[in-house]
Amino acid sequence: MKVQCPAKINLFLEVTGKRSDGYHRLATLFAKINLYDVLDLSIGPRPGIELTVEGDRNVTGGAVSAGPENLVWRAAQAFLRAFRVGRGVKIHLVKRIPVGAGLGGGSSDAAGTLLGLAKLFEIKLDARKKARLRALGARLGADVPFFLHPAPFCLGTGIGDRLKPIRVAGPLPYMVLVYPEVGISTAESYKALPKPSRCDVLTRLSHLDKLIGSLKRERPLQDWESLLFNRLEQAAVPALSHVERARRILSRLGARGVRMSGSGSSVFGFVSSHEEGARLLKRLQGYPWKVFLTCCNG
Q1: CA 279 to chain centre
Q2: Residue 283 in contact with residue 253, Cβ under 8 Å?
Q3: What is the pLDDT of residues 72-112, one digit of tens each?
Q4: pLDDT grade for 183, boundaries at 50, 70 and 90
Q5: In degrees rounded to 5, what are phi and psi of residue 50?
Q6: Residues 6 or more apart whose Cβ sits within 8 Å of residue 197
Q7: Which position among 37, 109, 143, 161 bears the catalytic label?
Q8: Contact between residue 229 and residue 14 where contact means Cβ atoms under 8 Å apart
Q9: Would 223 disulfide with which of 5, 29, 75, 219, CB 3.0-4.6 Å?
């Protein structure tokens, strides 16, 4: 059984506070995009988990663990235990989403594993079992619940795990996505983030409301591109110099609403058409980056 696991971008990300357990509170607008990892799941000949991983080194940033460090392996273990499945599973993961890029690839793979195993073992997901799956996902990572949710766009609050689906009217423009081939640690990024003023946070949150309203009313890009925001672009992390360079170049070449996704290092910018995006990709060929022409789901 094959499962496609989409990447995501954050059209908006504000840090609204910090919990006593160290997690940061967020207000973020998630959007799934048409860039996928692929899982191939089958029932194994013996109990246990057999995971293999395949991927371009420029995407994975080197070897990706096929053991308990991998979220796919951990999701499978959590599922087999929670649903008391006494059989084994074989999983082959094809990595196409860059690692350490703020695109949620590992979280999406974990969600795909949970949903795929439910189908593979013919476990009907009623409301109670869906709630159990969401609880498993939340323990695996803050972004996993978004990938378990069927909606292509969600407002995320809490630590990003409290989700409200957002109905966006009409497709968003195509986007060019740049991975500068440098990973950024999410924990390091939050640690190096200066605390914003309360007034600034409240202003940004009002922009989030306007952004959601514009997307619901299918307003053109020029009406909402200035409302896109990512607080983590202000973290004092050396690797962000690569992000800043990618943002400057994308903007200079005509992409609009250029922002970093999540904690980085990927950068996205919107273009007016597929043809313009293809032209922009050709002009980026000389840079040591991985580039994609894609669009949002839905």
Answers
A1: 26
A2: yes
A3: 999 999 999 999 998 999 999 999 999 888 999 999 999 99
A4: confident
A5: -120, 110
A6: none
A7: 143
A8: yes
A9: 219
Instruction: Choose, from 8, 32, 37, 161, the residue flagged as catalytic.
Output: 8
- Six-digit token pair at 206? 């009002």
pLDDT of residue 62: 63
For residue 64, report the phi and psi dihedrals to the nearest 5 degrees: -105, 130
**Start-to-end CA span in the chain (Å):** 24
User: Position of tokens 């605390």?
Assistant: 195
CB-side neighbour CA atoms (13 Å) of 27: 16
In 3D space, the residue among 69, 68, 252 whose CA is nearest the CA of residue 178 turns out to be 252
Q: Is 164 a catalytic residue?
A: no
Contact 105, 95 (CB under 8 A): yes
- Per DSSP, the three-state class of 206 is helix
90 part of the active site: no
Q: Which two tokens stand for residue 252?
A: 């200079």
Residue written as token pair 């924990």: 187
Structure tokens at 69: 């460090």
User: CB atoms < 10 A from the CB of 159, how many?
Assistant: 18
Cα 28 to Cα 145: distance, rounded to the nearest angstrom: 14
Task: Pull the structure tokens for residue 272.
Answer: 């007016």
